[in-house]
Amino acid sequence: SPSLEALPSKPIVQNPFRKVHNVVIQRPEEVQLNRAKLPVTSEEQTIMEAINENPIVVVCGETGSGKTTQIPQFLYEAGYASGDGIIGVTEPRRVAAISMSQRIGLEMDRPREVSYQIRYEGNVNKDTKIKLMTDGVLTRELASDFLLTKYSVIVIDEAHERSVYTDVLIGLLSRIVPLREKRGLPLKLIIMSATLRVEDFVANQNLFPTPPPVIKIDSRQYPVTIHFNKRTPNESEYLEEAYKKACKIHRELPDGGILIFVTGQQEVQALCSRLRETFPFRPNQTVVEGDTSGRDESRANRRKRFKLDDYAIQAIDEEEGEAASDAEFDVEEDKADQVSSRQPMFVLPLFSLLPSAKQALVFQPPPAGCRLCVVATNVAETSLTIPDVKYVVDTGKTKTKLYDRNTGLSTFRIMWNSKAASNQRAGRAGRTSAGHCYRLFSSAVFNDEFAQFTPPEITRRPIEDLVLQMKAMNIEKVVNFPFPSPPSRESLIVAEAELLALGAVQPVKGKTLASGSRITPLGRTMSNFPVAPRFAKMLALSGQHDLMPYMISLVAALTVQEPFLEGKPEDDNQELPEDAKQRQAYFSQLKKRWIGQGFSKMLGDLMVLLKAIGAAEFAGLTPEYCAEHCLRFKAMKEIRQLRQQLTNSVLLAVPNLELSLDPNLSPPTELQSKLLIQVVLSCMGGKIARRIPASVIAAANVEDKSKLRHAYQTLSLEQLVYIHPSSVLFQDEPEFILYQELFEGNKIYCRNVLELKGAWIPKFAPQHCIFSAPLEEPEARFDGGNGNVICHRTSTCGPHGWPLPSVEV
Ligand code: ADP
Ligand code: MG
């Protein structure tokens, strides 16, 4: 077919990485039409000129303006992928990497040339020209090829999200770009951001001595009227409030999609099923409104173009409560539209763990005559743009993972969003026509309790994995690194100390740790595994007694979110007890079927994971098998992929290890179970807990002794902790346990628990013990328990001084 688009003539700058001719893409006609409407399309010339003439360019534009889908295509057409280098695009979210690669491949009508790579999977091939990947994937590539010689351009997308790896990539690329220039192989860096807050990158002398040019995409944005609630509902009410608001909009207001922001997958699913019950959708339902053709056109005529600067959010306080809120609707414009409560509603969920085929549904128009209603987590805030949303319902809440650096305790807290993020959510309503945003909180709460911006992730979470990657790139002094927003000194020090405790780094000879540390051979091996450092060490220590396939499976299972279907099942054909307590008991019973005797029983929840993986693989990993045994099919598939990928990385890192790629997994022997526990202990020694002994409870001078029963003391926390009821060791209550993580519910619970013998602690976690005689040959502890036994008389453990049994020679 003939080319549908005349190519603009573009200035060509010599670049060995870039072929001097433009590439012609013949796009499907429908794609052509959609592209023409996107704000970036009219800026192509400006954007490409800036890129051709500058090594680093920042592009800013509202979400939905076409940055992610179009700019890689501009680069492709300008020849940036026709020389030796390809175009690399990073995304902070896995969802975006996959769905955007599919979209770009489809728009270009060259699906094989546009690939993605995320931690678990990818479809990169020899024809790949544009590669979308998560920012973590590119960071890892840097460890083996610091100059990124495969690439002619790197596009850092969604830089405003300020994910840890995006920040670090920008820091690293600020140094790589000049190095590539020196080598005569210039690399282009394009930083793309949704909001206008780019000062952290642009006005940061430490990062870019010459500020890069910023191109603002002048985007079409219609005014959005903001309606604040008069009253702010409390924790238990806001979901109900969102439901009521959606019903009201649907019953009383003109056509247009509804987008509801809630906090997590469970809430998305709960709200979706309630809305579906209230407004059942039958596929062959007749449309009640009659003919809707012609309406789009008249509406299009009424469209005004709003410059970005004109885009002002008009805020209205709902003085008279609900009734007033409707009076505020600007119904005038849509008077012609029929409003009918009989119109069916087409309800779709959107969250990051949703299978990608289901995610893609939100981009398609709803069935004729239906109103689209998407219930989403903040995935829909910036990374994915849902077409034709007119009403946004914003609960104002977001789920944030909080870490306590001292204790390692992590909790999910539902918190207020930031002002910037709320305005971003509101903006979703004004993409195709004037819209409305219903904020389910008062303007006073917004003004007083919402932070201006969400702080960058790097300042909020532990960064051990990142520091290990940086060490593998031979960066000795991480405190001097040009971070766009540096993490606190404290968290850098904590990370370095943890790596030191794991044996991954050692102080630079003759210097103290404060002046930097250097990676050890163990650390280098660890850095090859795309998992958190302590998991990486588990792999590094498992090259004996055929432990590797088990350790790979455990690490995969512990890394993937929730293999067990303990919440509400994905597909509704599964009958589960409604009551939370009953449900936990049910799961505990179910898991017990998988637990063995002896050392394998001591492996506890980890044994359950191993058996579940083995059994599901043996049964051919079908959705039916998973449903029957309450396993999340998607998680099990991810575990399989991660096992495969880890197996490959282990084979690369330890070439002479005999390791098969057989997905089947027979249960570990008693010896292997024991060794697995010991290896895990040597990597997670800090997560030991000891049950409060009966004698202590009897002697305790407290009124309420019930708190002391079943309670455990950890090495790090003041408070007592408890084994979670879903654990198979819940009733056994062994004296010493090792846990994967602590989380806070109505009590503090330990998750993924295994049992320890007290005598193993001084052997495999000596850093946490106090010895009466000096420790000899500390390295001997890493031999899996078969070599030299460390000789000492007595020991105690942790700040509480738990007595531990003597260890014999
Ligand atoms: P930005 O990156 O500036 O936020 P995008 O390039 O993601 O913008 O989106 C541009 C347009 O492409 C949006 O209107 C969006 O709805 C549309 N789009 C993106 N992905 C898909 C898809 N998979 N199917 C249909 N339309 C899509
Ligand atoms: Mg984008």
UniProtKB/TrEMBL annotation:
The lineage of its organism: Eukaryota, Metazoa, Ecdysozoa, Tardigrada, Eutardigrada. This is RNA helicase. GO terms for biological process: maturation of SSU-rRNA from tricistronic rRNA transcript (SSU-rRNA, 5.8S rRNA, LSU-rRNA). Its EC number is 3.6.4.13. Keywords: ATP-binding, Helicase, Hydrolase, Nucleotide-binding. Residues 238-474 form the Helicase C-terminal domain. It is an enzyme of class 3 (hydrolase). The keyword DNA damage does not apply. GO terms for cellular component: nucleolus. It catalyses: ATP + H2O = ADP + phosphate + H(+). Residues 48-214 form the Helicase ATP-binding domain. GO terms for molecular function: ATP binding; hydrolase activity; RNA binding; RNA helicase activity. Belongs to the DEAD box helicase family. DEAH subfamily. The keyword ATP-binding applies.
